[in-house]
Amino acid sequence: MITNSTADISGTGSLRTTRGVIVKFFEWFGNLTIFCARWARAIFTPPYEFREFVRQFDELGSKSLPLVALAGAATGIVLTLSTRDSLIRFGAKSFLPAVVVFSIIKESGPIITGLVVSGRAAAGIGAELGAMKVTEQIDAMEASAVNPYKFLVTTRVLACMLMLPLLTLVADFCGIVMGWVANTAAEPISLRLFVHDGLKDVTFNDFLPPTLKTVVFGLLIGIISCFQGMRATGGTEGVERAATNSVVLASLFIILADVLLVRLILVFFS
Amino acid sequence: MLSRQPKTSSTPPIQVQLLSKSFGEQTVLNGISLEVAQGETLAVLGRSGTGKSVLLKLIIGLHQPDAGSIRVHGEEVTNLSLKELNEVRKKVGFLFQQAALYDSLTVEENVAFPLRRHTRMSDDERIERVRELLRSVGMDQDGHKLPAQLSGGMQKRVGLARALALEPDILLFDEPTAGLDPITAAETDALILRLQKERHMASVVVTHDIRGARAVSDRLALMRDGEILIEGTFEDLQKSRDPFVMQFLNGS
Parallel, antiparallel, or unpaired for β B219-224 and B227-232? Predict the structure, then answer.
């Protein structure tokens, strides 16, 4: 009897916990939807915060560029070393430049850029806006009759959306060049020949859609980090939570969005 | 149905009627009413966590009330669109508890922030206006510094200069002397008093510092459990036999 009632209590407790998690999940999505609607309205309503947009664009680019270049370069090296070994086994070594270039421009470059910027910028935006929220700076902005969705959110989201494709080009470039370096270290080949072999079958459909899909990654990074930052509560702990959640959720959503976008690109641009 | 009333010269700039606000299960304000006339300063006193700051944020539309009416210059702020609300906010200065200066901007840029967005001043005019505002609060030598390089008292002065930037006729002070040493607190009170005399604004000062409240205000309202327990001059409060009022005034 005692065992049964304990089981009942424990069962009710876990049911309540599950219900709580589900309610919180839908609440989060509902608030995110409202946030997106306010952001969308702010984009199209003047005045436009052009100076702040340029500042955010510059800051995001200058701070993310070294990391993206390094990550792109490392990806190019790793891809070349591991692919070269496999291709030699199958007697298809001459395909190496094409495999490296295709891998980088179609998938590795965009996703690596998305994830690196997510780690760098999403944490920064989440922490910055979180700190502004808990120290009442966002309230002060509203009290000054300035719309924080326009000044803080729109500028950061647009900066992320426009900067991601540019950073992807940098990652692609560094990846291809370092892929050539890694290949040359094992078996010398001219850069010109490597690039020629790599790019000869590449079309705009191979290059443009994967590069431009990072606009969606930028949108996700910007929206999620701004959303998490602007709902921060509870002092430094809240700021830390906002920064961590921004990175985790932005990275997760980028990977999930990539699955969908790769499929869409295959359907429309193959 | 709450409606908008035209502004008349006799309408008090701030009118709050039967205002209630709860956060979840916790009732913060429970049907409070108050008025502040032009040129008058009302100090709202009470223990920490009694909803004093929430009252100020409701007045400026940063929170939505559950019930009641808030009129600023006759405009029912609870019914306004964001655009209309922003027009009201331009006439109201707000000094936040921790000054809430923008971390990434210098002192001058903080004060220039509302001017850049809501006036058509040239760069020279704006710089001159910012320096004049900083001079009026004794911070004209620190315009290039970042907020992190300033003490708490200095941050409050800059916050005050920013609140005055658009020449508001209403000023809301959230704990203007909290966290300051007694000398800096007295200097801040003197500054508030001087600015009020010069500019003849309607002000609400939220504080738990009875000395400061007495120094800067014409009337005081003491809050308890989300309601106004007593309202009047300091002398009126002193006459009260209510144990809470006596304890609050005497500090023991």
Answer: antiparallel
